[in-house]
Specification:
CATH class: Alpha Beta
Order of helices and strands: HEEEHHEHHEHHEHEHHEHEEH
Mean pLDDT: 95
Number of helices: 12
Strand content: 15-25%
Bound molecules: guanosine-5'-monophosphate, sodium ion, manganese (II) ion
Distance between the termini: 40 Å
CATH architecture: Alpha-Beta Barrel
Protein name: Response regulator receiver modulated diguanylate cyclase/phosphodiesterase
CATH superfamily: EAL domain
Radius of gyration: 18 Å
Strand order of the largest sheet: 1-2-4-5-6-7-8-9
Organism: Gloeothece verrucosa (strain PCC 7822)
CATH topology: TIM Barrel
Length: 254
């Protein structure tokens, strides 16, 4: 059987799992958020990378139900953590182009938030620049609609696309995620250092929260602290973890 067929059955067969990668405050060193990252554990194939199955899911129209499942699962998990007395954790969910393009996006989200009784203020949606630029004026309206629900909008993989800086001014973002290609070796690579410093400064002047992705070393972290990055995410602190392990990490048991 081919991958696509297996993927089509994966949701009903409960083969997906949501992993959580901590986002840590540079100021306090505490976990303040988590990016929800989907995992596919197929009995026959083992763990399949989202780098492989997300594009296929997008192509065959499975990304809408899958994305909704990830969103619901992550929000319910965050509520469960709150009930258990953990500090409030902002949940970040990746939204694919096809999901973003669905009609009545804000209504869809508002129904889900209401149904599971989840505070929109604790939800971040991670979007990439390319999906917004297909139709910028419609994207602006969609983002405004989402923001009426209190959710935060993050621009993911910032700096890797083809667009100009003008969309930073056009779109109502709350969070800028500096792509990991710029973070790599910032303590040694002068160009990456300058780009990252400039991005942090630019983002702060636009009142955006800055998250650095792909932080793998202590020197990278101290550089980011020195230049007032707000939050970091990366293997240095933790890889994406199953919910139970994330919980142990957040409660200091791990
Ligand atoms: O989890 P990992 O770091 O291997 O993710 C690889 C890619 O898959 C990333 O680009 C990530 O954004 C994407 N991805 C992971 N989970 C989801 C998801 O639930 N929805 C969407 N749209 N993309 C996801
Ligand atoms: O595209 P997006 O930014 O959503 O990608 C998230 C991906 O980044 C996931 O596949 C996650 O496993 C990966 N990732 C998270 N932290 C690190 C890191 O420190 N180094 C590297 N190389 N990848 C990371
Ligand atoms: Na992301
Ligand atoms: Mn990213």
């Amino acid at each position: 059987l081919d991958l696509e067929t297996d993927l089509r059955h994966a949701l009903e067969r409960n083969e997906f799992e949501v992993y959580y990668q901590p986002k840590v405050s540079c100021e306090t060193g505490k976990i303040v958020g988590a990016e929800a990252l989907c995992r596919w554990n197929n009995p026959k194939r083992g763990m399949v990378s989202p780098g492989i199955f997300v594009p296929i899911a997008e192509e065959i129209g499975l990304i809408e139900p899958l994305g909704e499942w990830v969103l619901r699962t992550a929000c319910k998990q965050a509520k469960d953590w709150q009930k258990k007395g953990l500090n409030p954790i902002k949940i970040a969910v990746n939204i694919s182009a096809r999901q973003f393009n669905q009609k009545n996006l804000a209504l869809w989200l508002s129904n889900i938030l209401e149904e599971i009784n989840f505070n929109g203020q604790l939800l971040e949606l991670e979007l990439t620049e390319s999906m917004l630029l297909e139709n910028p004026s419609i994207s602006v309206l969609k983002l405004r609609g989402l923001k009426t629900l209190g959710v935060k909008i993050a621009i993911d993989d910032f700096g890797t696309g083809y667009s100009s800086l003008s969309y930073l001014q056009q779109f109502p973002f709350d969070i800028l995620k500096i792509d990991r290609c710029f973070v790599k070796n910032i303590d040694q690579n002068v160009k990456n250092a300058e780009i990252t410093k400039a991005l942090i400064s630019l983002a702060h002047h636009l009142n955006l929260v800055v998250v650095a992705e792909g932080v793998e070393t202590k020197p990278e972290l101290s550089f980011l602290k020195t230049y007032n990055c707000d939050e970091i995410q990366g293997f240095l602190f933790s890889r994406p973890l199953p919910a139970s392990e994330f919980e142990r990490l957040a409660t200091g048991e791990l």
